[in-house]
Amino acid sequence: LEHLHSVIHYEPVIGIMGKSGTGKSCLCNAIFQSRICTTHPLNGCTRQAHRLTLQLGERRMTLVDLPGIGETPQHDQEYRTLYRQLLPELDLIIWILRADERAYAADITMHQFLLNEGADPSRFLFVLSHADRVFPAGEWNDTEKCPSRQQELSLATVTARVATLFPSSLPVLPVAAPVGWNLPALVSLMIHALPPQATSAVYSHIRGENRSEQAQKHAQQTFGDAIGKSFDAAVARFSFPAWMLQLLRKARDRIIHLLVTLWDRLF
Asked: Is the pLDDT of residue 7 over 80?
């Protein structure tokens, strides 16, 4: 029961990284259900890592709003120490880059540093913000809230370049957070990138307009997988006769089916 409880009440931790001015706080506010990050249009306002706890009923998760990199060499060195300390507890790192700029040197350096520190490449999700400002910026379709054909070509070029600079098993995704463009696709990608025990808890905090049937099904499926893995770990702690193991396997499948059926009530 303790193992099952730990899965159902798992509290995910997601890190939000990127240089100041990339729109980290704006993106967080657009994705999740409550206003959680202070935004500021001018200078970087996140000088230290802020733990932002989101709570809906008994369900909690934490966003670690990380300080912007690339401001000064002195700050970058301080941030490296901070990132090294936080790395082990992050389920996912969402790394935000501006789609309308090419200066990624500081991000590349920091990314390589984290990989050298043992960070799992599959835990990095790279997002291109300010998609509405790519060339030609004046062609953004305000009515449909989507890029023009020429902007789509520009975004495809930028996306391919970033994917080359920051190798990852996950695709690079452009978004325009203020108007909500491509946010459901980002949420779906997040849910697929998270470890199984974290998907459902994170999904429960997502704004309704950013949810999708595909993302929900994946969250339910991985929840069942996490329950099964936890059950197996609990059984493995003891030595049971063959007949008992057979009964436990049947009970395992029934428990997983029941909890997945109750997923909507649990999350």
From this structure: yes
Measured CA distances, 60 to 2, 75, 116 (Å): 18, 31, 31
pTM: 0.88
Read off the CATH number of the domain in which 135 is found: 3.40.50.300
Whole-number pLDDT of residue 37: 54
Q: What pLDDT is stored for residue 55 in this prediction?
A: 85
pLDDT in tens, 73-117: 777 777 788 888 889 999 999 999 999 999 999 899 989 989 998
Task: Name beta bridge partners: 124.
Answer: 93
Cis previous bond, 136, omega within 30: yes
Residue 236 lies in a domain: yes
Tell me which residue range forms the domain holding 182.
11-209
Nearest to 40 by CA among 17, 23, 52, 16: 23
